Amino acid sequence: DAPAPQSEAVLKRRNKSFAKPQKNYYAAPPQIERGWKEHLFDVTGRAYLDMVNNVSILGHGNPTLAAAVGRQWSMLNTNSRFHYSVVADFSDRLAALAPEGLDTVFLVNSGSEAVDLAIRLAWAHSGRRNILSLLEAYHGWTVASDAVSTSLADNPQALETRPDWVHPVLSPNTYRGKFRGAGATEGYVAAVAETIAAIDARGDGLAGFIAESVYGNAGGIPLPPGYLQQVYAMVRARGGLCIADEVQVGYGRLGHHFWGFDQQGVVPDIITIAKGMGNGQPLGAVITRREVADSLEREGYFFSSAGGSPVSCIVGMTVLDIMQTEDLQRNARETGDYLKARLEALGQRFPLVGAVHGMGLYLGLEFVRDRETLEPATEETAAICNRLLDLGVIMQPTGDHLNVFKIKPPLCLARESADFFVDTLEKVLSEGW
Ligand code: PMP
């Protein structure tokens, strides 16, 4: 379907002066003008249910956030090297959210920057370079965060082009990976042990390990039980640091846990966060131990002009305030559980639904052509996304086969909206997939 004429004109201008590799959703996207809670409105006034926006955790158009930002902008916004109080307030607050011992915060502007900095900390602290990263992962676009990204959906050449300090390990995907179901942990841990043994044999040591602690990029798949405990122990035995990338799955989205690593019963050495913490404002952070943070001084000092600016800190503080007053983690848990149960019921009726992964409001709905072979229903998933757009629902695929719906709506998602999503999906699936 062609977009509305005025929207097509803007799309043409976008394609003229905006660099091509910056992808947008959909071949014929609606031109979005306004948002309210989990809803988006295009220039024709048409409403869409936004089921994919993991950036706006509070929802769109939050008036409390808008007022707080406006107030701070008109009072002061400046380079973060000046002395002002809100940077201390926000750092304290983030450190208080982290497990004990992770008491030191760096403020940056994005998830990519946070991951880049985490890798640099692992290098500086260990004095070594080698980093283990999961296959099928996405961690960002900057040089180091891109290096540890192995997702074929984001870069089909990823595996041929990683630098030699990156050591990808088997994707611990218990649904379609090499080891499945209960008992898979051992196989995946052994695969990591093998890669570590090869690094041991090279003799240049291990700097660290990075992973999303619930496998978001693969479609919200929980890591096998005990996986991080065993892998973290092997990495630490070699003086390496364990990085939990919580950019997508952390910060309350899982509902049952504030942090993804809570689900694995581990405490990382470094946490990276971004996305929802700024509700769309560029904001990222690294939380670690004091001695790890201090090790960066061996490489000079660190400074980010806008990272931790007064406006960024006010955004971060206000997001946390609103999450608390609106009890959004509870909503992620309750509405997420409700949504998951409804999707599972849908799976009973439609064989194309292979599995429903995830928890809270980070769910993955995986489409397969055959439940035995698990052949990914990639083209079907793309077509279903397009059909959902026709019917007013925004949804996009993830995973190496692009056959998993990444369901990560604003955490204020109402039960009626969850119902609208499932009812609309049911209608689409009934059309003959
Ligand atoms: N880590 C993970 C797990 C992500 O999903 C992303 C973004 N999709 C990033 C890091 C990079 O974040 P940003 O886009 O804010 O640079």
Automatic annotation (TrEMBL):
Keywords: Aminotransferase, Pyridoxal phosphate, Transferase. The keyword Glycoprotein does not apply. The keyword Transferase applies. One of its GO terms (molecular function) is transaminase activity. Belongs to the class-III pyridoxal-phosphate-dependent aminotransferase family. This is Aminotransferase. It comes from Rhizobium wuzhouense. The lineage of its organism: Bacteria, Pseudomonadati, Pseudomonadota, Alphaproteobacteria, Hyphomicrobiales. The chain holds residues 542 to 974 of 974 of the full protein.
